Amino acid sequence: MRRLNVGMLSFAHAHAYDYLACLQQMPEVTVGGIADPVPERTEELAMRHAIPYYSDYRELLADASIDAVIICSENVHHAEHTLAASEAGKHVLCEKPLGLSAGEMERMIAGCEAKGVQLMTAFPCRFLTPVVRAKEAFDRGEIGEIIAFKGTNRGSFPGPAWFAEPSLSGGGAVLDHTVHVMDLMNWFTGSPVEQVYAYAGTLFDPEHKRTIDDSGMVHVTFANGVFGVLDPSWSRNPGFPTWGDVTLQIIGTEGVISIDAFNQKNNVYGRASGKGSWSFWGDDMNGLMLQAFVQALLEGTPVPVTGLDGLRSAEVALNAYRSVQEGQPVKLHR
Amino acid sequence: MIKTAVIGCGGMGNIHADRYMSMPEAQLIAVCDINGEAAERLGLLAGVKYYLSAQEMLEREKPEVVSIAVPTYLHVPMVRLAADYGAHVICEKPLALTSAEAEEAVRYCNGKGVRLFVGHVVRFFPAYSQLAEGIRQHGGGRGGIYHAKRAGSHPGQVQEWFRDPALSGGVIVDLMIHDIDYIRGTFGEAEEVYAFEHRTETMNYASATFRFGNGTLAQLEAFWGYPGAFHTAFEYAGADVIISGGTPDGESVHVRRAAASGSAPGFVETPASVLLKDPYYEELEHFLRCIASGAEPKVTAEDAVQAVRWAEAAVSSGATGLPVKLDAKGGIL
Ligand SMILES: NC(=O)c1ccc[n+]([C@@H]2O[C@H](COP(=O)([O-])OP(=O)(O)OC[C@H]3O[C@@H](n4cnc5c(N)ncnc54)[C@H](O)[C@@H]3O)[C@@H](O)[C@H]2O)c1
């Protein structure tokens, strides 16, 4: 069996820990190196798993035996890291949002193309089994043509501090949580977003110290006339039974598909926790996403979610901010 | 005992008549419908006189309070007629198809010295009144995100007039207006609305986001032609609290009978309730008490006018694809 040697580039985004755990379950994968500028969070982890550790990602990229890298750095570094990886001939799975400007994302896509490596955007929601089943039902024509979407990707305020630091994150909830469900809307319609009208604000800090947007409402109009609205707010408080949700309602000419992707859950009421919580038992989206990435690279087939997909959804979030600034609907430049 | 009468013996007229019959402070004295069968059926059921003409009923029976439950396009002419006979008016929502007409109804009743109430019944649903209270208690003034929806089969399947927006106002003016009135009552004046609406013969779907001065966003959906049972849902999230609810989640009794085949004409779906006093009862009782005491109701005729203004603004945004700014009076800027 051919094996894939995967390097992990930065653990700034906590998803990296989960990805690492998934990769280690996969017999066809070797994790050939971890590069992270913050040794306190990764050096020991790397040692425990006998994975070479580098504080400088360039050393990881210099290892010719590494086939692909997973980039979980702060959003602002995605472009630099992706371009460096492609230069070194590594395939890339990049955490979302893919980049912080359309130009930067175009360069990432072109750079990978030029070097003959694949670029995949980490949109695990594509691999949620409820979403996959919904897409199959839609493709069978069960709800006719799409008229409108209503989605939510409500979440908790993210742990790592850089999420609240615009110079590292590039934006708050509207950037972080628009992209997933926006990607699903793009996937279902197959039509480009033409117009964005959005609101953004800071409503969910009980101490009123937060300066980055943690709430909003993003409205899109697709070229084919379909309308979509999406709540990307970090609005879950610690009393809520889970971290957040991914819901999407697809209103069609002949029916409606309602997805509540994390509704596969048991209710857990613990004396110690003092609150009820939801314990999810559905399929593991991160594992399925990594499986798809690895399989495409081993078989030499196109990755299922591309850099262009990453661009198409991140540019909606970026234009949402433009719309907030201008106080009116904005057209996407193409 | 206040003497009440009901004009329009359809779905809502039946509900009004039924609640008056069980209300100690009210006496239902007559009902009326231009459809003789409907009038007769309800008249016999209630054991009261029934009429084919509202004018004749008003003239002969001299009710003190009249419930108006005719199709929406007839609300204002009926309000005026009842006011002409000196009856206080309880009109079903929406008060009128346009804000101009709604204002006219308020002016007319003022001129005739009769009170006018509009059946914005959501304010009387305990789930929603408790929600409003919870939002107030948990710092709602600092802003939050509200979602609400209301979806069910197309009422045009049972009553044809609902299909024509010139008669019913369509899903925003007829159905979303419940949530529109509710968010006005709960969050105050909005600055802007941005909406989408899609309408065909068999479905009418609308989605509207209202933005309030303190940053609160209220995202409302209303859906006629939803391929499933009537349901409602809401969620409010603020910095300190999340409150969610809706039907069928909040239902405590399910009676499920084997399905009979075929469909028959009937009434538009209204939520059933497992409460000793259901929200329609609470609403009508509250209005009758306001008449007796002269007190201001929880939802005024002016509130009903504003709700129509906001609905108009949402319709206009849906038609143009542009956000519509609202002035302090709820008018379109
Ligand atoms: N508050 C709520 O929850 C709720 C629910 C449904 C409907 N409504 C509102 O109630 C009103 C009535 O709706 P409905 O579902 O009962 O409609 P419906 O069609 O079932 O009933 C209307 C009745 O009025 C009668 N009518 C028509 N013209 C008349 C006239 N000139 N004089 C006397 N009777 C006349 C019709 O024959 C019919 O029987 C509408 O404005 C609707 O928007 C409110």
From TrEMBL, chain A:
Residues 16-122 form the Gfo/Idh/MocA-like oxidoreductase N-terminal domain. Residues 132-257 form the GFO/IDH/MocA-like oxidoreductase domain. InterPro entries: Gfo/Idh/MocA-like_OxRdtase_N, Gfo/Idh/MocA_Oxidoreductases, GFO_IDH_MocA-like_dom, NAD(P)-bd_dom_sf. This is Gfo/Idh/MocA family oxidoreductase. SUPFAM superfamilies: Glyceraldehyde-3-phosphate dehydrogenase-like, C-terminal domain, NAD(P)-binding Rossmann-fold domains. It holds the Pfam family GFO_IDH_MocA_C3.
Automatic annotation (TrEMBL), chain B:
Signal peptide: none annotated. InterPro entries: Gfo/Idh/MocA-like_OxRdtase_N, Gfo/Idh/MocA_Oxidoreductases, GFO_IDH_MocA-like_dom, NAD(P)-bd_dom_sf. Gene3D superfamilies: Dihydrodipicolinate Reductase, domain 2, NAD(P)-binding Rossmann-like Domain. It comes from the Bacteria. Residues 2-120 form the Gfo/Idh/MocA-like oxidoreductase N-terminal domain. Transmembrane segments: none annotated. Residues 150-237 form the GFO/IDH/MocA-like oxidoreductase domain. It holds the Pfam family GFO_IDH_MocA_C3. This is Gfo/Idh/MocA family oxidoreductase. It comes from Paenibacillus phytohabitans. The lineage of its organism: Bacteria, Bacillati, Bacillota, Bacilli, Bacillales.
